[in-house]
Each structure stands twice: as C-alpha cells, then as structure tokens.
Amino acid sequence: MSDTKINQLLAELTLEEKAMLCTGKDFWTLHGIERLSLPSIMVTDGPHGLRKQAGEGDHVGLNAAVKATCFPTASGLAASWNTKLVEEMGVALGKECRAEDVSVLLGPGTNIKRNPLGGRNFEYFSEDPLLAGDMSAAWIKGVQSQGVGTSLKHYAVNNHEHCRMTVDAVVDQRTLREIYLPAFEKAVKKTQPWTVMCSYNKVNGTYAAEHKQLLDDILVKEWGFEGIIVTDWGANNDRVEGVKNGQHLEMPSSGDMNTKKIIAAVENGQLTMAELDKSVARVLALILKSQASLESDKVEADLNAHHELAARIAEETCVLLKNDGLLPVAPGKKVAVIGALANSTRYQGAGSSKINPFKLEQPLDEIKKQFGDDNVSYTAGYHLNDKEDSAEIAKAIELAKQADVVFLFAGLTPKYESEGFDRQHLNLPQVQLDLIAALGEQLNKTVVVLQNGAPVVLPFVEKVPAILEAYLGGQAGASAVAKVLSGEVNPSGKLAETFPANLDDVPSQPYFPGTTKQVQYREAIWVGYRYFDTTKTKALFPFGHGLSYTNFTYYHLTLLSGDKASFNENDSIKLQITITNTGNKAGAEVVQCYVGQKSSSQPRPAKELKAFEKVFLEPGESKEIEFELDYRAFAYWDEAQSSWVAESDEYQIHIGSSVEDIRDTATVFLNTTVAKKQPNAALKAYFEPEKRDFNDAAFTALLGYDIPAPTPITPYTVNSTLGEIANEPLGKPLYEGMLSVFTQMMGGDQNDSAAEADRLMAESMVADMPLRNLPVFNSQQYSEDQILQLIASLNNKETRI
User: Fold this and answer.
1) What's one Pfam family the UniProt record gives for this protein (predicted)?
2) Which of 632, 627, 629, 611 is nearest to 569 (CA)?
C-alpha cells in the first residue's frame, strides 16, 4: 500500500479516530471509519480451519461456528514434511475466508514444543525451528495468495498453558535466538504475514505485548516485518507502553478504556503523535489490503473439493511407528475393530481452534469400505468418559479371538489435551491401557492406531507388531487411516517431535511449567532431539522417524563445493545424494540433512536439522537430491557480538531417514574468520547435558545476570490473577462469576469428554486471568476503577495500586 495514501489518511484522521483504530471494535472486528470509506474488517480463529462465529462473537463452542473444512492439526501437518501440500491447504483456507468475508485468519501456531506436556502442542508444528518455520511459511503463503491475511502466533516463548497470561519466561539470549525465534524469523522473511500475534506471557521480565526488543528491534527493524503486531485476546498490559514499543492493535475491544488512555498520553506528552502514527499507519495498511478482497467478486469455496484435499493431507500425516510385517492387511481378512475412538473419532484439538466440520468420517465406516462389511466386526472396548467396564473388555477379547487381525484405536480424549491447561502425564487413559493388557495373547495380531495431538508413552510397544500414529487427522482422517491399513496408501509421515520413552527423560521436565509467576528455561538449547541425540538418551521413537511399505537406499553423497579455503556470510556448501526406491511399492521418503560441529568452543548439539526434502518414487526409480547450506547452517548465536558465528573447524554433514537413522556422512573443514574461543568453564553443565545439572551457577552464567526472583503473589496488583484471589472473601465472587461466564462461552459440545475438556479449559482460563482483563472480558459488570478499588481493599490499603 502506498505511503502517499497512508499519509493522506493520517492527515484526515482525528486524534480520537487514531486512538480508536488501535483497538478492536468488538471481539472479532476492527473499527472502520465510514467517512473515509474505511471498512470494519473481520478476523477469526484458525489455524486448521475457519472458525467464524455465527451470532454471538465471543464463544469457543463448536456449534457456535459456521460449517467449514476441518484439516489435520499442526502436529500432523508437520509430520507430512510436505510444504507444497501445506501451501495447498492454505489456499483452501483462504478461499473459505473469502467466502465468509473474513480478512485475517489467526494462524499459524509456530511456537516450539519445548515439552511434550504442553497443552496446546497439537496446534504447533515441531520441536525444531527449521521445520516449524518452513511449515509456517508454506501455510502463510497459501492463505495470503487468496488476498486474506494471516497472524503468525504466538510471539514469543509461549510454550505452555499454565498461567500463560502472566508467567515470566526467563530464557538466555542464545537459546532465544537458536530455538524460540528462528521459526518466526523464517516465516516473516519468506512470506511477510499481514499480522504477527504477540503472546500473553512476559519474556525476561517484560510482557510480550510491550517488549521493545522482540517487537521493534528484532521483528520490525532486524527482520523487516511490514505488517501489524496484534495482541493475543487479552494480552495487552499497558496500552500506552504497547504503542511506544511496537504493538499496533489491541484485541479484543476494551471499549473506550484504552482509547482514552492513548488520547490522554498524546495530550500530556507521554506519547508523541509520531509514535501513535506508526501504529495507526500499519492498521490502515491492513484495512486497505483487506478492502481489495472485500470489494472484489464473491468467492465460492468448494467444500467437497476441500474435503478431498483434507483426505490427501491426512494420508501424509500418518506416521507408521512400528511394523513387524503385519501391515498392510490384505483383502479378505477377518478384521476386529476395537476402541470407542473408531466410532467417535478424535479428529481435532480442544479450545479456540475447534472447527465445525461440514462433513465428518468415522474410522469404522471407512474400514468397512476397505475390507467389506461382512469382514469387519466392532466393539467399543472402553468408554470415552474413562468409566471402567469389564463386560466391554470381555466382548473385545472374544471379538479379537475370532479375527485374523485387530485394529485397536487408542488415543487422548479432549480432557487430556486442550488449550488452557497442560497435560499431567504422557500416558494413555487407563481404561485403554487396561483393555490392551487384557487382550494378552491377541496382541500379536494387533495394530494400534493412535489418535492424539502429542507424544504418548506406550508400555505395550514390544507386545504389538504394528503401531500407526494418525495424530488429529481432521474431518477426512478416517479414510486416510483405512487406506494406510489396507495398503492403498503407503505411509510417508515422519515425526516432527521426539516421542520420549519416559517423561523423566525430557530435559525441561524439572522446570516445566514452572511456578505461577515464573518459568526458567534452564535446559537452554537442549530441546527435543538436540538433547536425546547428543546425550544418546534412548527415545521411544526419534525425531524424523517414520516407516514405509517400501525401502529406500541412499548412495553417492557428494560435496559439490569441496572443502572451503575461506567461508564467510556470503558462501554456501552444496551437496548431492541419490536416493532409490528399492522396494516393490511406490512411496515417499523425507531426506533429512543434519549438521554438527566437531569441537565447538560453545555447547552445541551433535546434529541440527538444516535442510530436508520429501521425494516421491516409483519402484526402482532414483532421484538426485541437492541441498545448499549457507553460513548460518553452521553458525551459533554469539551474544557478545549479537550475530551468528561459525568457527573455523571441521563439520559433519549427515544425511538420513531420521536423526538416528543416518545413511551417509560427509566431513568438511570450514576456514572462517572466527577463531575458537576458550570454552567458558562456568558453562560446564551445558557442555555435559547428559548430567542435567543445570544448577543456579550455570544458569546464571548462561543468562549473564543473576536469576531474577519471581514476582511475589502479594501485594495484589492489576496482574494478580483470579485464581490468586479466589480464596479471599472479596475475590471468591469474582472468580465464581467469571467462571460462570466462561463456562457458557465454552458450551456447544454434546460429547461427555469434550464437555469435561470445556470445563477444565474454563476453570484454567479463569484462574489464570489477570484482574486487568475483567473490564475487557466483562465490561458490563466491571470497570477499571472498580478493579483498582478492589485491589486496594484486598491489600487493606486506602490508596489504589
């Protein structure tokens, strides 16, 4: 959008209008200025489908949304490792937004999976920033190709749900740069999302919504972000500080509360007109970009075609974790389908991303299509509400005895993983484990099909010959599973996250999710496979793992560039490898390229993913895959220099089918301008991650300053939460009142398990809500003055806090 048009509009706007444009009109729309022909535009939830509210606009219940296509969630999408397919999905999402006059779709979820217990992990792509960044960029590119904006979220360091609205994430700068920011950086630089959504939490003591380093210094100035920075819903802390430090739009509407604060700040000199205009100009640009689509011809979304696309995507999200020859199952076999999830499928996560699918497949129906009604029998085996039922287990055992093969559906129901709260363990529901144990001798002919959004531990892994991870496959996931089981589709998914054998093996676990006020990222760069691979800690299934019904052979790894006599920021290394399908079935392989430094002066992982390519091959077909690795592929972040640094050293380039299944390795010596430093003895604990002794002294040395003390619970402030005052006589009515409001907002589902998830989400969101948000989410009952008076009373003070 031209600067001339923006400047012309800025000149015509009043101060009041400028301040108004920096906050929402209501829950889902922005203010327009009718006299200037600026429309009010609508934003709405994604990211695996369109969640446009019908009627009341502040509900998250499933039945409150318009019918749309429900695609696989991000955890499954990333397992496809297919950016072209993700881009196709983005195009379909963009068309559905256009059909509903939605201008910005809130997604993709790009945060790193620091710990497998993160309640919202199903909505995020990976534990690896390169893969998460490539997936995010593809999603954004597809959506925005349709003239619809996106909102890259949640920026930044938002890696768990517990107390997410006020918790302070304490993380060192190197870890921030190497683990938690690169996915956002790649997406911004490759695709320029129309908006970036800042997270609720603090980062190193400052709320993300007013974090100058994150918003203005890094995102805008360093990465060149051109769009607007919008708060997550209710993430605004200090509106004026937000505007000063690069936050452009507050959502949802706070009425005129914060508009008045902006006006007053300009009038008293706290905020300059130039500072305000920076925010307003970006909001104007967003409205003008959106206006072009809103005024163009109406788009009709072909939902049936999108269903077929959802099915194709789901086929590639399925990961064959284990197969001792039982799969694929030939036609004519007598199949017993066991598990309530086979007839009441878990196809998406719980929370604000819930889509109302216009069509929904069930695995049992699709298996009957593949194997014939007469060959398929079914029993639930367990109840979704976790009620014990020995009679149902007995029926399952008898059914299994009569079958040639058993397809047992297991997984996590909504109450085990949802936005709003974190998981408590990695186990499957006990009723499912009891059923599997009871099947005993029938397990040798059993395929376990998993429906879950994040890793689970599998105590029966050695007792069953085949395990298929279906993730949360969307509305067409059932047919994808059935086709994989029958062999009509050859599975090609690869894990985008480590499945640990035990929760205690996860290096962040001792510090996850922290206290109500602070979470310390003591494990630093040792996240996911970077830890498991470097320390040789045995995973249940490693990052990048996924089996096929065919075989792939790698050979002739060649460094096209040879050794580098000199290597700097403008240089790159090119390499080539040939891959052949040596089996008898067409299939796809994800060729993964990892880099490791031989003897760094800094703690560094043995391998880090630096490139990948998914290749489809017919039986006997070969293809040459070429990768180009730039300077940064070999570099670490040097905080002292505030730059990426690659030391002169020997580096190994690994090509493999997973981080553990390396097929070939090449060694290259890079002669850079950077000499190795003397290793910092204070960081010894990080050079020896297998000991996991990330003590106070080591973490202090990593941070470069003393570990900050958590914010005390009392005295109470505007950032005290309803949960913290719930036991106070004055606080209890507020907590219970807001719980009633949020419980109604969660309504809409009939399923018992989903209703339980809604209840848990409501309780968690209300308990974590800071008092400053009461006038935002329930302005009819609470004003800011009332809240300040309440805080003064809670603290037994006459003066306001």
Assistant:
1) Fn3-like
2) 632
Q: What angle separates helix 303-317 from helix 477-486, to the nearest 10 degrees? A: 50
CA 186, CA 130: separation in Å to the nearest integer?
Answer: 8
Q: Please say which residue of 239, 264, 293 terminates a domain.
A: 293
**97-145 pLDDT tens trace:** 999 999 999 999 999 999 999 999 999 999 999 999 999 999 999 999 9
CA distance 759 to 415: 9
| Per-residue CA distances from 199 to 73, 211, 270, 286 (Å) | 20, 11, 25, 20
> Active site residue: 128, 216, 232, 649, which one?
232
Does 392 lie in the same domain as 272?
no
Question: Which residues, 6 or more positions from 552, have their beta carbon under 8 angstroms from its beta carbon?
Answer: 579, 580, 581, 582, 583, 587, 589, 617, 657
CA distances to 20, 282, 320, 553 from 35, in Å:
14, 19, 59, 66
499, containing H or E segment: strand 499-500
User: Is residue 541 domain-resident?
Assistant: no
Residue 376 sits in the same domain as residue 273: no
Whether 571 is a known active-site residue: answer no
The one-character DSSP state at 7 is: H
Give the CA distances from residue 330 to residues 133, 136, 209, 326, in Å, rounded to whole numbers and listed in that order. 39, 38, 56, 10
| 278 shares its domain with 142 | yes
> Where residue 174 sits, what CATH number does that domain have?
3.20.20.300
Domain boundary among 535, 560, 580: 535
693 occurs within a structural domain: no
Cis peptide before 116 (omega within 30 of 0): no
Q: Which residues contact 115 (CB under 8 A, 6 or more apart)?
A: 159, 160, 506, 508, 509, 512, 513
What does the alpha-carbon distance between residue 663 and residue 83 come to, in Å, rounded to a whole number? Answer: 23
Please state the length of the chain. 801
Instruction: Tally helices (H) and strands (E) across the chain.
Output: 24, 28
DSSP 117-133: T-TTGGGS--SSHHHHH
Q: Which residue has the tokens 């609508």?
A: 42
Which of these, 243, 308, 307, lies nearest to 278 by C-alpha position? 243
pLDDT for 757: 82
Q: Are residues 608 and 509 in the same domain?
A: no
Residue 756 φ/ψ, nearest 5 degrees? -65, -40
CATH number, domain with residue 499: 3.40.50.1700
Name residues whose C-beta falls within 8 Å of residue 147's C-beta, 6 or more positions apart in sequence: 94, 98, 289, 292, 293, 296
Tally of domains within the chain? 4
* Global pTM value: 0.97
- Is residue 130 one of the residues assigned to a domain? yes
Instruction: Give backbone dihedrals phi and psi of 794, rounded to 5 degrees, phi first.
Output: -60, -35
Type of residue found at 571: D
Same structural domain for residues 91 and 238?
yes
- How many Å apart are CA 454 and CA 26, to the nearest integer? 34
Tell me: do 70 and 26 sit in the same domain: yes
Q: Is the dihedral of CA 608, 613, 617, 622 positive or negative?
A: negative
pLDDT-based confidence at residue 636 (cuts at 50, 70, 90): very high
Indicate if the pLDDT at residue 522 is higher than 60. Answer: yes
What does the pLDDT read at residue 744? 79
169 phi/psi in degrees, rounded to 5: -85, 115
**Domain, as residue range, for 165:** 3-293
Query: How far, in Å, CA of 784 to CA of 259, rounded?
Result: 13
Q: Are residues 263 and 120 in the same domain?
A: yes
